[in-house]
Structures are given as structure tokens and as C-alpha cells.
Amino acid sequence: MALPDLRTEGNFPIKDVLDPDPERRYKVLYNYWDKTINTWTIRTATSPDGLHWTGGPELPLRSFIEHACLYQHQGLYITHGQMFQRSE
Q1: Rounded CA gap, 23 and 33, in Å?
Q2: pLDDT 10s per residue in the chain (88 long)?
Q3: Of the chain's two ends, which shows fewer C-beta atoms within 10 Å, N or C?
């Protein structure tokens, strides 16, 4: 799996057979190391084959986020996780 970020962990890929765009058939949620905030946070990516990924927009969450899953329910993509806010 060639994700667009070098440091990644916690990859949760799913196959979305209902997406009409074959370039977005597979979706993944993963943690990546955001060097601008010096912590792990989450990002999404899509793929036509589950091997070559295009990164989604960087999420505007400026803190550590650890996710536990990714699934689709009634047309929505859902994840569960926890967030840690640093005091500065």
C-alpha cells in the first residue's frame, strides 16, 4: 500500500462498491505524522485498486488523534477514536 505520506500507521482500508467513481473504489483512513504540529493525526486517501493511493485533504485537526476503525453506514463513513489536546 503506497500511501501519500511517509510515516503512517493504523491503516483502515475499505472497498466501496457503491461509489460510481472507479477512481475512488477503495478508501482508507490512517494516522500520519504531521511535522507542522509534531504529532500524529488522521488523513484519508482513495484508490482505484487498493494499492496506489491519492491523499485527501489534510484535515484541519491540529492535535493528536488515534482512530480505531472505519466503516460505512447508511451512506456515511464513520470512525471512532480518541483525541488528545496538548496544553501549550
Answers
A1: 25
A2: 788 888 888 888 999 998 999 999 999 999 888 888 888 888 899 999 999 999 988 766 777 888 888 888 888 888 888 877 666 5
A3: C
The residues with which 41 forms a beta bridge, in sequence order, are: 32
Q: Which residue(s) pair with 2 in the sheet? A: 52
Q: Specify whether the CB–CB gap between 26 and 51 falls below 8 A.
A: no
Torsion-angle region of residue 33: left (phi > 0), alpha (psi -120 to 50) or beta?
beta
The CA distance from 78 to 75, in Å, is 10
Rounded to the nearest 5°, which phi and psi values hold at 65?
-135, 130
* Cβ–Cβ < 8 Å for 66, 81: yes
